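Q&A log
Question type: sequence-to-structure
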Amino acid sequence: MAVAAYQAGDRVRAEQELDAAARLDPNNPYYASLRSTIALDRGDAEAAIDFALRAVEVFERTGEGRFAFGRDASGNVLADALAYLDLREWARSLADA
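Response status: OK
Response body:
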């Protein structure tokens, strides 16, 4: 439902659906990853980073799920989020760390 709402242009409903899904399945990093993607789409770097870090924490804790972005690029979700926002120097320094 969240993806359909987002594709229909209803960002608020998509975010509500993802939040509800995350409450029902807190061990699935997919929901935070999608929230990060939505935040990136609207240019909210701080929220995108927060959600990406939340997704990484859940993934590392559970080893389940997959990310909406990041694993096919540098392998570092936060670095990829920064690169997506044209903060490439920050992304490079993070990827090198």
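Response note: The chain has six helices and no strands.
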